[in-house]
Design brief:
It comes from Neobacillus driksii. This is Protein YhfH. Pfam families: YhfH. It is a single chain. This protein has one domain. Helices cover 27% and strands 0% of the residues. It contains 2 helices and no strands.
Length: 44
């Protein structure tokens, strides 16, 4: 059974930060994996 693309994207789980587990706001133009809080605490 095929589902519509709209239904597919609607049922995807929320993006989660691998460092702290916090749910993140999806942004189409962002490829970041960590949340802002974890990124700010890293030394780069």
């Amino acid at each position: 059974m095929l589902i519509s693309p709209v239904e597919f994207f609607r049922t995807l789980p929320k993006k989660e930060c691998p460092e702290c587990g916090q749910h993140m706001e999806e942004q189409a133009e962002s490829y970041l994996m960590e949340c802002d809080r974890c990124l700010a605490s890293k030394d780069e």
